[in-house]
Amino acid sequence: MTWRTAALEHAKTEDPREACGLVVVIKGRRRYWPCRNLADGTEQFILDPMDYAAAENAGEIIAVFHSHPATPPQPSQADLLACEHSGLPWHIVNPKTEAWGKCKPSGYKAPLIGREWVWGVSDCWTLVRDYYAEQGIQLRDWERPLTPSDFLSEPIFDRCWKETGFRELDEEEQLEPGDAVLMSIGSVGLNHVGVYLGDQLLLHHLQGRLSSRDLYGGWLLKCTGRRLRHAS
Predict the structure, then answer these.
(1) Confidence (pLDDT) at 41
(2) For residue 114, what are the CA distances in angstroms to 75, 109, 122, 222, 226?
(3) In this structure, are residues 128 and 117 in contact, taking their beta carbons and an 8 Å threshold?
(4) Which residues are catalytic?
(5) Up-side HSE of residue 189: CA atoms within 13 Å toward CB?
(6) Which of 23, 63, 129, 232 is the most buried (most CB within 10 A)?
(7) DSSP 8-state assignment for residue 116
(8) Among 122, 138, 198, 116, which residue's Cα sits nearest to residue 181?
(9) Predicted pLDDT of residue 146
(10) Do 155 and 189 meet the contact criterion of CB atoms below 8 Å apart?
Protein backbone atom coordinates (compact mmCIF):
# COMPACT_ATOMS: atom_id res chain seq x y z
CA MET A 1 0.00 0.00 0.00
CA THR A 2 1.37 3.42 -0.95
CA TRP A 3 1.43 6.24 1.58
CA ARG A 4 -1.18 8.12 -0.48
CA THR A 5 -3.58 5.18 -0.31
CA ALA A 6 -3.11 4.89 3.45
CA ALA A 7 -3.58 8.65 3.91
CA LEU A 8 -6.76 8.65 1.81
CA GLU A 9 -8.19 5.78 3.86
CA HIS A 10 -7.42 7.71 7.04
CA ALA A 11 -9.14 10.81 5.62
CA LYS A 12 -12.25 8.80 4.74
CA THR A 13 -12.35 7.30 8.23
CA GLU A 14 -12.11 10.71 9.92
CA ASP A 15 -14.66 12.47 7.66
CA PRO A 16 -16.31 14.92 8.47
CA ARG A 17 -13.36 15.89 10.71
CA GLU A 18 -10.03 16.76 9.17
CA ALA A 19 -7.52 13.93 9.23
CA CYS A 20 -3.85 14.69 9.72
CA GLY A 21 -0.62 12.78 9.52
CA LEU A 22 2.96 12.73 8.31
CA VAL A 23 4.93 11.21 5.48
CA VAL A 24 7.95 9.49 7.01
CA VAL A 25 10.90 7.71 5.40
CA ILE A 26 11.45 4.50 7.37
CA LYS A 27 14.13 2.05 6.25
CA GLY A 28 14.27 3.65 2.82
CA ARG A 29 10.52 3.62 2.17
CA ARG A 30 7.88 6.36 2.38
CA ARG A 31 5.29 5.49 4.98
CA TYR A 32 2.13 7.26 6.10
CA TRP A 33 2.08 8.02 9.83
CA PRO A 34 -1.47 8.83 11.01
CA CYS A 35 -1.69 11.40 13.81
CA ARG A 36 -4.41 12.50 16.18
CA ASN A 37 -6.22 15.75 15.48
CA LEU A 38 -6.57 17.65 18.76
CA ALA A 39 -8.69 20.47 17.34
CA ASP A 40 -12.31 21.03 18.31
CA GLY A 41 -14.83 21.04 15.48
CA THR A 42 -14.36 19.98 11.88
CA GLU A 43 -12.71 22.91 10.11
CA GLN A 44 -9.07 22.69 11.19
CA PHE A 45 -6.49 20.38 12.66
CA ILE A 46 -3.96 20.44 15.49
CA LEU A 47 -1.48 17.63 15.00
CA ASP A 48 -0.68 15.87 18.27
CA PRO A 49 2.95 16.74 19.15
CA MET A 50 3.36 13.32 20.80
CA ASP A 51 2.57 11.66 17.48
CA TYR A 52 5.01 14.01 15.73
CA ALA A 53 7.75 13.06 18.18
CA ALA A 54 7.04 9.36 17.68
CA ALA A 55 7.31 9.79 13.91
CA GLU A 56 10.64 11.60 14.32
CA ASN A 57 11.93 8.71 16.37
CA ALA A 58 10.81 6.21 13.74
CA GLY A 59 12.37 7.86 10.69
CA GLU A 60 12.73 11.12 8.76
CA ILE A 61 9.62 13.29 8.38
CA ILE A 62 9.46 14.62 4.82
CA ALA A 63 5.92 16.02 4.51
CA VAL A 64 2.72 16.93 6.37
CA PHE A 65 -0.70 15.59 5.32
CA HIS A 66 -4.24 16.68 6.12
CA SER A 67 -7.69 16.50 4.55
CA HIS A 68 -10.29 19.02 3.42
CA PRO A 69 -13.55 17.07 3.90
CA ALA A 70 -15.84 19.94 2.82
CA THR A 71 -13.71 22.01 0.45
CA PRO A 72 -11.41 21.48 -2.55
CA PRO A 73 -7.86 20.39 -1.67
CA GLN A 74 -6.25 23.69 -2.58
CA PRO A 75 -4.21 25.08 0.35
CA SER A 76 -5.98 27.74 2.39
CA GLN A 77 -4.27 30.89 3.61
CA ALA A 78 -3.80 29.19 6.97
CA ASP A 79 -2.31 26.13 5.27
CA LEU A 80 0.22 28.32 3.47
CA LEU A 81 1.23 29.98 6.74
CA ALA A 82 1.53 26.70 8.62
CA CYS A 83 3.48 25.21 5.72
CA GLU A 84 6.02 28.04 6.08
CA HIS A 85 6.31 27.37 9.81
CA SER A 86 6.82 23.65 9.30
CA GLY A 87 9.49 24.01 6.61
CA LEU A 88 8.02 20.94 4.89
CA PRO A 89 5.84 20.24 1.84
CA TRP A 90 2.14 19.77 2.58
CA HIS A 91 -0.23 17.31 0.88
CA ILE A 92 -4.00 17.78 1.01
CA VAL A 93 -6.83 15.47 -0.08
CA ASN A 94 -10.60 15.73 -0.29
CA PRO A 95 -11.85 12.31 0.90
CA LYS A 96 -15.06 12.53 -1.12
CA THR A 97 -13.66 13.52 -4.52
CA GLU A 98 -10.23 11.92 -3.85
CA ALA A 99 -8.64 14.99 -5.44
CA TRP A 100 -5.21 16.06 -4.19
CA GLY A 101 -3.48 19.38 -3.66
CA LYS A 102 -0.01 20.39 -2.50
CA CYS A 103 2.05 23.34 -1.32
CA LYS A 104 5.60 23.91 -0.16
CA PRO A 105 7.45 26.67 1.71
CA SER A 106 7.84 29.68 -0.59
CA GLY A 107 8.16 32.71 1.69
CA TYR A 108 4.40 33.34 1.95
CA LYS A 109 3.27 36.06 4.38
CA ALA A 110 -0.37 36.76 5.19
CA PRO A 111 -1.73 40.33 5.15
CA LEU A 112 -2.39 41.88 8.54
CA ILE A 113 -6.07 42.43 7.73
CA GLY A 114 -8.31 39.64 6.46
CA ARG A 115 -6.24 36.64 7.56
CA GLU A 116 -7.92 33.43 8.73
CA TRP A 117 -7.82 32.41 12.40
CA VAL A 118 -5.97 29.21 13.23
CA TRP A 119 -4.68 28.44 16.71
CA GLY A 120 -0.92 28.79 17.01
CA VAL A 121 -0.50 29.67 13.35
CA SER A 122 -2.65 32.71 12.70
CA ASP A 123 -4.21 33.99 15.92
CA CYS A 124 -4.25 37.24 17.91
CA TRP A 125 -0.68 36.89 19.21
CA THR A 126 0.61 35.98 15.74
CA LEU A 127 -1.00 39.14 14.36
CA VAL A 128 0.58 41.33 17.06
CA ARG A 129 4.01 39.76 16.48
CA ASP A 130 3.69 40.30 12.71
CA TYR A 131 2.67 43.93 13.21
CA TYR A 132 5.68 44.62 15.42
CA ALA A 133 7.96 42.75 13.02
CA GLU A 134 6.94 45.20 10.31
CA GLN A 135 8.12 47.96 12.68
CA GLY A 136 11.47 46.20 13.09
CA ILE A 137 10.67 44.78 16.55
CA GLN A 138 10.90 41.02 17.08
CA LEU A 139 8.66 39.79 19.90
CA ARG A 140 9.09 36.45 21.59
CA ASP A 141 6.74 33.77 20.28
CA TRP A 142 5.57 32.28 23.55
CA GLU A 143 4.81 28.56 23.50
CA ARG A 144 1.05 28.17 23.60
CA PRO A 145 -1.03 25.45 25.26
CA LEU A 146 -1.96 22.65 22.87
CA THR A 147 -5.51 23.80 22.16
CA PRO A 148 -7.57 27.02 22.39
CA SER A 149 -9.64 25.39 25.15
CA ASP A 150 -6.49 24.81 27.22
CA PHE A 151 -5.53 28.46 26.71
CA LEU A 152 -8.95 29.79 27.72
CA SER A 153 -8.83 27.83 30.96
CA GLU A 154 -5.51 29.47 31.82
CA PRO A 155 -4.58 32.50 29.63
CA ILE A 156 -0.86 33.24 29.56
CA PHE A 157 -0.76 36.88 28.44
CA ASP A 158 -0.86 38.41 31.90
CA ARG A 159 2.28 36.57 33.02
CA CYS A 160 4.20 37.15 29.78
CA TRP A 161 3.93 40.84 28.90
CA LYS A 162 6.76 42.07 31.14
CA GLU A 163 9.22 39.49 29.81
CA THR A 164 8.20 40.41 26.28
CA GLY A 165 9.49 43.95 26.79
CA PHE A 166 6.25 45.79 27.63
CA ARG A 167 5.39 48.14 30.47
CA GLU A 168 1.89 49.03 31.62
CA LEU A 169 0.66 52.56 30.94
CA ASP A 170 -0.33 54.75 33.84
CA GLU A 171 -3.96 55.86 34.02
CA GLU A 172 -3.11 59.38 32.86
CA GLU A 173 -1.11 58.19 29.84
CA GLN A 174 -2.90 58.22 26.50
CA LEU A 175 -2.71 55.35 24.03
CA GLU A 176 -0.32 55.92 21.15
CA PRO A 177 -0.10 54.08 17.81
CA GLY A 178 1.72 50.81 18.37
CA ASP A 179 0.60 50.29 21.96
CA ALA A 180 -0.75 46.84 22.81
CA VAL A 181 -4.05 46.21 24.56
CA LEU A 182 -4.86 43.09 26.61
CA MET A 183 -8.53 42.17 26.86
CA SER A 184 -10.85 39.59 28.33
CA ILE A 185 -13.21 38.29 25.64
CA GLY A 186 -15.96 35.93 26.79
CA SER A 187 -13.80 34.24 29.39
CA VAL A 188 -11.99 34.68 32.68
CA GLY A 189 -8.58 36.32 32.44
CA LEU A 190 -6.86 38.36 29.75
CA ASN A 191 -7.16 36.09 26.73
CA HIS A 192 -6.97 38.50 23.79
CA VAL A 193 -4.46 41.06 22.50
CA GLY A 194 -4.58 43.78 19.86
CA VAL A 195 -2.57 46.77 18.65
CA TYR A 196 -3.82 50.33 18.83
CA LEU A 197 -3.36 52.02 15.43
CA GLY A 198 -4.44 55.54 16.34
CA ASP A 199 -7.65 57.36 15.36
CA GLN A 200 -9.60 55.05 17.74
CA LEU A 201 -8.79 51.97 15.65
CA LEU A 202 -7.65 48.58 16.96
CA LEU A 203 -5.96 45.83 14.92
CA HIS A 204 -6.87 42.42 16.33
CA HIS A 205 -7.89 38.87 15.47
CA LEU A 206 -10.83 37.20 17.22
CA GLN A 207 -11.27 33.44 17.14
CA GLY A 208 -13.52 32.32 14.31
CA ARG A 209 -13.21 35.64 12.44
CA LEU A 210 -10.85 37.28 10.01
CA SER A 211 -8.30 39.70 11.41
CA SER A 212 -9.70 43.21 11.29
CA ARG A 213 -9.28 46.89 12.09
CA ASP A 214 -12.17 47.88 14.34
CA LEU A 215 -13.30 50.94 16.24
CA TYR A 216 -11.73 50.80 19.70
CA GLY A 217 -14.68 51.73 21.81
CA GLY A 218 -17.84 50.23 23.27
CA TRP A 219 -17.45 46.59 24.24
CA LEU A 220 -13.79 46.38 23.23
CA LEU A 221 -12.98 49.23 25.58
CA LYS A 222 -15.00 47.61 28.36
CA CYS A 223 -13.12 44.33 27.84
CA THR A 224 -9.71 46.01 28.20
CA GLY A 225 -7.64 44.94 31.20
CA ARG A 226 -4.18 46.37 30.47
CA ARG A 227 -2.68 48.95 28.12
CA LEU A 228 0.95 48.26 27.27
CA ARG A 229 3.86 50.05 25.57
CA HIS A 230 6.95 48.27 24.26
CA ALA A 231 10.38 49.48 25.34
CA SER A 232 11.49 49.78 21.71
Answers:
(1) 76
(2) 16, 12, 11, 24, 25
(3) no
(4) 124, 192, 204
(5) 11
(6) 23
(7) P
(8) 198
(9) 78
(10) yes
